[in-house]
Fold:
Amino acid sequence: MKISVGLVDDHQLFLKSLGLMIENFDECKVAVMAMNGKDLQERISSNDPPDIILIDVSMPVMDGIDTAKWLTQNYPFIKLVALSMNDSDRIIIEMIKAGCCAYLLKDTHPNELEKAIHEIYTKGYYNSDVININYRRLLQEQNDPLNITENEKLFLQLACSDLTYKQIGIEMHLSERTIDGYRENLFHKFKVQSRVGLVLEAIRKNCVKLNP
Amino acid sequence: MKISVGLVDDHQLFLKSLGLMIENFDECKVAVMAMNGKDLQERISSNDPPDIILIDVSMPVMDGIDTAKWLTQNYPFIKLVALSMNDSDRIIIEMIKAGCCAYLLKDTHPNELEKAIHEIYTKGYYNSDVININYRRLLQEQNDPLNITENEKLFLQLACSDLTYKQIGIEMHLSERTIDGYRENLFHKFKVQSRVGLVLEAIRKNCVKLNP
DNA sequence: TTAAAAAACGGGAAAATCCCCGTATGAGGA
DNA sequence: TCCTCATACGGGGATTTTCCCGTTTTTTAA
Structure:
């Protein structure tokens, strides 16, 4: 009996060719391929779910974290593997928290992928060496969470623009003083001392989305 | 005689599996695979170069643009295809300028890739519909270059920080007034009206590098 | 229910930003 | 040679940001 593998990735070329590669692994067969979490929900069959699902982190419609969470909820026996290009960011931790038992980079060697799938299937876990480097920093960030309010988050998004604080206040239907409070709180949380510093830090930490 | 294809991509999983897929295309064979431009320079054989090379845009060591330029210089008969995930940015134009005759997204369908390779081999070009949408804007940006001074560039980099203009002036050994002039010029060039707007636009246009 | 915590709000002031006004200097072209 | 243009610089003032000092209202917890 082969290991049944599922794939979720928004890049068709990668999805299809990775599927082809995994089909070529002796022990594996591809059970389901999906473009994103939403797509997976429709394609996954409840009476014959795959053993392992590889999930890309960054996807439109329904991203890796939400997909992993949904799978842990609805298919707790499926082993989840996060697949990503950027080893940076505490997104790794988010994915682990969402139920992934491994985190692989897209530039790992095919052999390592095969080994990882095998180990996860037999032992239930796999640790890639590459990741461990940043582990301490990641856990540290995790222990010291930013803890940003919903309103602060909205303010942060609006602060990443040409708008003045007064305009942001009007936009959020709040007094300029309240906005002032948000600013001050975020300055402390991000350890910065100017709006520019705040914006830069928010971008680095992926707290805001830049519209092109 | 099969079409000989070369691949350049820093993500091993993608590189290897895409290679596998292209080998499966009836008309194609994979002649060379490389992790980046530097790697390609060493692997490419001058007596039997491939017909077509697919180049990923974002790579470490030697990126897609430099790789394409080098290939157009040294192997002008090889057809180049840019391969990328983000259709945004005028990087597309840069790649075309560097000698690419097509620009494909990583989420195109395998069939379209096969079709593209075939058309490029027979006709010498291929136009994906997806790209044409932004063409006008891209060309317009190209016609209206930003034309940023060396000093303005340095100022821009320093403006992306917690530093005040006064501190930036000291850092650059220039008067605060002069800095003021740089600011004003860049505000016009970037069509913004605040330092935050300037910083955001500079990040969008890849004029500055964010240190993590 | 009541005390404590937090969120929202306000006045005021120093600092920084933004945007005018101008002058001086040096390089390059008519 | 003189003129233009780009660059560096300065004064000054309106606006915004930043950071104090508070009070009132709402939420939370005991």
Q: What stands out?
A: The interface with chain B takes residues 10-14, 16-18, 20-21, 24, 85, 88, 105-110, 113, 159-162, 164, 192-197, 199-200, 203-204, 210, 212 of chain A (CB under 8 Å).
